[in-house]
Inverse folding.
């Protein structure tokens, strides 16, 4: 991966981490582009002797030994970690965090990165997250929780549109309807509560005020007591150019986010992240791991839209390449409660990632189409290709999911990073896939108007 050898690993052993065993066995749990980026960074750490990923994918297999254990097989993961004497586990996706995998690792004596189930409720239950924010003065949209469709109908009739209807539980990013009309809001309530569109996740709803502004994702590393800012990013959720069409898991991202300058980042830390950490400690659920705040930058300042309790996907694919410091000791310091004096250094460049998805995504799509030419893209300067859903079959690389590759490139500004990313994408030969051609458009328009 040309041009990406710049990890500043020299600092790793001087960050208060001297007591770590010099070479550790690490297990990363997950199989997406996020986990590929995490594995890429962890494999480069001098603290890492052996890296496993469960279950991983064909790209991750170049950084780690992949083991065929599913992320929901907690017994299997804990057994494997004990058998292999894993020193540190990093849990990527939200579902196993919400389901208590980090607690299971802890009970087995295995140190792990990520919140336990009690703290992961910040993502697992929107109602819980809203109540915490409301009780502790974290700025967020006005809201009410509902378990009864009639009461929910009455509330939206009273407040009118636009209004936002959210399932309480995890719904794979599909449980939020930003309703432009009253009818849309009523239909969203009925689909979740009467139609059962989201199963148990939709039996309770949060209905909240529509926030107007520009959205950004803000990441902070937390050790239960202290938080350090990582970086901000912006992503594109809609499948089509110009941010049109259905929502997806994310079609691309870039970092830094121009709306989050250093003053705004400090406001988000002071008004949202630190009060949340204090609140979680006060309520007996200290939060360790990555706090990923979806924030709306409104005319009256930053407001919390939602919390995720893990690294973002595809945001990790733009955060990790910008990190100059060694990621692994920072994750360990978070798990150990040692972030109080921790400091991370960042490359002063922009990273932009474009998701390549199987044709048809986010609707139905075929699996098994062949992908060629990745090595041509990887040979380009400042380009990294992270795999999200690939496998090797009979020596051929094939797509095994909806979002399949994330192609990250660096540049001095968003426009340059975008040009580099699309040059790399154009070198990849995958007739069964597509991507958006305009990732970063808003930031590029801003760069042009600033000139
Ligand atoms: P969430 O899963 O809560 O992040 O919601 C998904 C998306 O819906 C967010 O990324 C926003 O674009 C939008 N959204 C959620 N809540 C609000 C809100 N209160 N006002 C405006 N847009 C929202």
């Amino acid at each position: 991966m040309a041009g990406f050898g710049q990890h500043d690993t020299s600092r790793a052993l001087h960050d208060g981490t001297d007591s770590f065993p010099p070479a550790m066995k690490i297990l990363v749990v997950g199989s997406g582009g996020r986990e590929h980026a995490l594995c890429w960074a962890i494999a480069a750490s001098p603290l890492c002797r052996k890296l496993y990923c469960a279950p991983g994918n064909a790209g991750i297999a170049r950084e780690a030994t992949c083991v065929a254990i599913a992320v929901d097989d907690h017994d299997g993961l804990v057994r494997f970690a004990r058998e292999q004497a894993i020193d540190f586990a990093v849990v990527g996706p939200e579902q196993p965090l919400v389901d208590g995998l980090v607690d299971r690792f802890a009970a087995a004596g295995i140190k792990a990165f990520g919140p336990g189930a009690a703290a992961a409720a910040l993502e697992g239950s929107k109602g819980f997250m809203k109540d915490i924010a409301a009780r502790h003065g974290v700025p967020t949209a006005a809201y009410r929780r509902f378990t009864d469709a009639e009461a929910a109908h009455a509330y939206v009739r009273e407040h009118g549109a636009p209004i936002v209807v959210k399932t309480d539980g995890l719904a794979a990013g599909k449980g939020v309807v930003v309703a432009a009309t009253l009818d849309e809001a009523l239909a969203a309530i009925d689909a979740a509560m009467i139609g059962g569109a989201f199963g148990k996740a939709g039996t309770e709803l949060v209905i909240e005020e529509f926030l107007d502004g520009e959205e950004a994702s803000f990441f902070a590393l937390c050790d239960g007591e202290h938080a350090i800012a990582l970086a901000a990013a912006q992503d594109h959720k809609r499948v089509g150019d110009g941010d049109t069409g259905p929502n997806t898991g994310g079609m691309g991202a870039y970092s830094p986010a121009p709306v989050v300058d250093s003053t705004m980042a400090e406001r988000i830390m002071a008004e949202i992240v630190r009060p949340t950490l204090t609140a979680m400690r006060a309520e007996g659920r200290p939060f360790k791991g990555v706090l990923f705040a979806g924030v709306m930058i409104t005319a009256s300042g930053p407001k919390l839209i939602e919390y995720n309790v893990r690294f973002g996907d595809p945001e990790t694919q733009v955060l990790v390449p910008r990190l100059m410091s060694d990621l692994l000791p920072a994750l360990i310091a978070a798990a150990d409660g040692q972030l109080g004096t921790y400091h991370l250094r960042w490359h002063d460049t922009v990273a932009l990632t474009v998701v390549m998805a199987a044709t048809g995504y986010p609707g139905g799509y075929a699996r098994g189409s062949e992908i060629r030419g990745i090595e041509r893209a990887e040979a380009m300067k400042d380009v990294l290709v992270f795999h999200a859903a690939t496998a090797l079959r009979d020596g051929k690389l094939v797509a095994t999911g909806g979002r399949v590759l994330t192609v990250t490139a660096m540049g001095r500004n968003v426009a340059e990073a975008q040009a580099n990313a699309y040059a790399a994408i154009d070198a990849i030969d995958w007739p069964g896939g597509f991507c958006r051609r305009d990732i970063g458009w808003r930031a590029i328009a801003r760069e042009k108007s600033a000139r």
Notes: The chain is about 30% helix and 25% strand. Residues 5-16 have pLDDT under 50 and may be disordered. The pocket of adenosine monophosphate is lined by residues 141, 164, 166, 176, 178, 208-211, 215, 294, 305-306 (CB under 6 Å).
